[in-house]
């Protein structure tokens, strides 16, 4: 099995044109990145590779310093130079750690004049990503999964399974370091890993996983082809008659690219509203997230940023809490991180215990919807959110602008800036949980 991983790795390196190039191996000490490091070290002579190692310590876990020391010692045993970096984070979240990690890796690569940075993503990582994106209604853009190469970042183990990684490490009498956050079942990726993938293999056989990974490759090629057609057809933008003559797939991509340039997005539901607007003989305006509007008038259309909103705002596309995350929602900075058993959340955040099995995961950050229910941490009991807002005398014009943390079934866990629910806590129990911070930008 050791030869099998090396053979796949060598083919991948050739496909990526990495023979004779310099590579910075990003190694956390976990099994996947450790196998990547050992495999590249075994191939450096036949493929004339110049190898360097980098390990990034974010300080998010008590074991992180020992993980970095493990990588240093392994690199020394392989006679490879190793850069150990400690990064300071403004927010303790996996998303912030990922951003800081890649920035540090790129800095090491730049200082050492290294051609490429290699990470240890495997076939199962690819399958998990594809399934999670399909589960949220993604098109071919999301179905591409993890890119085999994006700029200087390469993932040469995407054809290698975790079982092959384990066998390879066993043949080298190496175990790698374990990350306990990979066992938390409060995040979608971990539930897909521990529940969905085994069920797929049980129902369809082990060949299902590489088949899904091949689907991602096919989706990537299809997406590149459609995007090329979209760029070639973009001269139709602006004229309703010319634009409607295009295939819907091309219309969607042209609109999506234009919306992205304005800092917003168009999902399938928004595209259907826009398509209906294009068929209208009367002037129509479709509101999109981040104060962008699609306007149709007198046979012409445009995507523009609205400087002032004179009508009630439309609901924004919810943010799904699938795992550690850092980003923005309606002018609020959002950060989500895993909590280990019995850990307390920050004072300005809320914690959700993984043991709360009555909640429907994944959690969402969104505006209110009909049917939402709310049980304050103290006070009015369980009631419709609308009734609670009326009883609390929240002005009507403010209700649709409230940012909510909810579960998938409409249970409101937190009305940001107003009240928490009985489902929030300061300290999680033995199963751990998540911390969610939602703060107005600039606060």
Features:
20% strand; Rossmann fold; 4 domains; seven-stranded mixed β-sheet; 443 residues; single chain; 14 helices; six-stranded mixed β-sheet
Counted beta strands? 20
CATH topology of the largest domain: Rossmann fold
State the major sheet: 7 strands, mixed
Percent range of helical residues: 25-40%
Summed up, the helix count is 14
* CATH architecture classification of the largest domain: 3-Layer(aba) Sandwich
Average pLDDT value?
88
Tell me the Rg in angstroms. Answer: 24 Å
Question: CATH first level of the largest domain: which class?
Answer: Alpha Beta
Count of domains:
4
The 3D shape can be described as globular
Question: How would you portray this structure in words?
Answer:
- The radius of gyration is 24 Å and the shape is globular.
- It is an alpha+beta fold.
- It is built from 14 helices and 20 strands.
- The strands form four sheets. Strands 10, 14, 15, 16, 17, 18 and 19 form a seven-stranded mixed β-sheet that branches. The protein has a six-stranded mixed β-sheet with strand order 3-2-1-4-6-5, sandwiched between helices.
- The chain is 38% helix and 20% strand.
Compose a concise summary of this entry:
Helix 1 crosses helix 7. 38% of the residues lie in helices and 20% in strands. The chain folds into four domains: 144 residues, HUPs (Rossmann fold); 71 residues; 69 residues, no CATH class; 122 residues, no CATH class.
Outline the fold blueprint.
Layout: H1 2-15, E1 22-26, H2 31-43, E2 50-57, H3 64-77, E3 82-86, H4 94-111, E4 116-118, H5 123-134, H6 140-143, E5 149-150, E6 153-154, H7 162-171, H8 188-204, H9 208-232, H10 240-244, H11 248-261, H12 268-278, E7 284-288, E8 292-297, E9 300-305, E10 319-321, E11 325-329, E12 332-339, E13 350-353, E14 363-366, E15 373-374, E16 383-384, H13 385-391, H14 396-399, E17 404-406, E18 411-415, E19 419-420, E20 433-440
Parallel strand pairs: 1-2, 1-4, 2-3, 4-6, 15-18
Antiparallel strand pairs: 5-6, 7-8, 8-9, 10-14, 11-12, 12-20, 13-20, 14-17, 15-16, 17-18, 18-19
Helix pairs in contact: 1-2, 1-7, 2-7, 5-8, 5-9, 9-11
